């Protein structure tokens, strides 16, 4: 399965010229084009918003169904615009339109005698607005379906780039873990030796050797040094970090809806990198921890865009 980003853009256009009307005047009035644009950004849930012309408001439920079937997460805005070829020209009303307006005007004036009659401009505007709206519904739905398919493809392409980036970062994190692991025995040995030297200096300053046998002091010093070595050992952190990296790589290769699971694993990686830095007794391990934190933060930013 593919990995999808929540970021993408697509557009599609369709004409409303299918099933042309019988008379030329009606055809000129209804010839139109529809453009559908869809923009998507990251979001915790599926958040849909629409900007539709008044005569296409009825398509919103169908558009919600199409988007809900195609996507699971993301903030998606759909914008539909129409362009009628004859909008700038004077329409040519047909007899059916004029007769209907005449009947409606007579009905209104029979109930409201003071109502004024329709002007020529109002008649032309009503004839233009009332023509061909049904044909635009079909054209808009066709364009919307192609736009949604294009948006899904765009999100898939962006997802491929995110997967490549995340796999690169996991490889670099493994390399840092491999770099840190052989440092630990030398660092622990060096810190133990330093601890014993300071222990002996402290005993000499307080002259404790006169009241406590030297063997007892040496045994206590070694026990304290061993306890200190356990506290600064990061072998467990490195093991857990590798385990998290294994799971991240497995999820990326399996695909599907994995954004929330990846987000949790990135938090675990951040915790291990922070622990490594807090336990680090040497500048070399501190530098490795800093590099790990930078890589994990880069991964966290990109994981926010995965569906």
Would you kindly provide a brief summary of this structure?
With 307 residues, this protein is α+β, with helices and mostly antiparallel strands. The chain is 64% helix and 11% strand. The chain has ten helices and four strands; from the N terminus they run βαββαβαααααααα.
Question: What this model shows, in words?
Answer:
With 307 residues, this protein is α+β, with helices and mostly antiparallel strands. The chain has ten helices and four strands. The chain has helices at residues 24-30, 60-70, 95-111, 120-129, 133-180, 183-206, 214-232, 235-254, 259-279, 283-303; strands at residues 8-15, 32-41, 46-51, 74-84. The chain has a four-stranded mixed beta sheet. Helix 2 (60-70) links the parallel strand 3 (46-51) and strand 4. Helix 2 runs parallel beside helix 5 (133-180) and helix 5 packs antiparallel against helix 10. The longest helix has 48 residues, at 133-180. The chain is rod-shaped. The two termini are 13 Å apart.
């Amino acid at each position: 399965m593919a990995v999808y980003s929540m970021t993408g853009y697509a557009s599609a256009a369709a004409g409303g010229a299918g099933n042309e009307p019988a008379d030329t005047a009606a055809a000129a009035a209804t010839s139109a084009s529809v453009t559908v644009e869809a923009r998507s950004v990251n979001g915790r849930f599926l958040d849909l918003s629409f900007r539709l012309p008044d005569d296409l408001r009825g398509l919103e439920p169908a558009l919600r169904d199409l988007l809900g079937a195609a996507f699971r997460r993301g903030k998606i805005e759909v914008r539909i615009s129409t362009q009628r070829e004859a909008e700038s020209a004077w329409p040519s009303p047909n007899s059916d339109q004029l007769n209907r307006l005449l009947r409606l005007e007579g009905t209104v004036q029979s109930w409201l005698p003071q109502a004024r009659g329709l002007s020529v401009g109002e008649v032309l505007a009503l004839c233009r607005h009332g023509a061909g709206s049904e044909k635009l519904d079909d054209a808009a739905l066709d364009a919307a379906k192609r736009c949604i398919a294009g948006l899904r493809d765009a999100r898939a392409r962006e997802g491929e780039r995110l997967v490549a980036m995340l796999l690169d970062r996991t490889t670099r994190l493994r390399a840092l873990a491999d770099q840190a692991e052989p440092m630990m025995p030398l660092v622990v040995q060096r810190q133990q030796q330093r601890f014993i030297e300071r222990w002996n200096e402290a005993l000499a300053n307080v002259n404790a050797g006169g009241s406590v046998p030297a063997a007892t002091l040496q045994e206590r010093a070694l026990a304290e040094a061993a306890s200190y070595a356990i506290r600064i050992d990061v072998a467990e952190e490195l093991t857990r970090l590798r385990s998290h990296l294994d799971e991240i790589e497995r999820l990326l290769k399996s695909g599907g809806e994995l954004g929330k699971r990846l987000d949790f694993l990135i938090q675990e990686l951040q915790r291990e990198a922070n622990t490594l830095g807090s336990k680090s007794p040497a500048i070399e391990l501190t530098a490795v921890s800093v590099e790990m934190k930078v890589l994990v933060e880069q991964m966290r930013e990109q994981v926010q865009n995965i569906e």
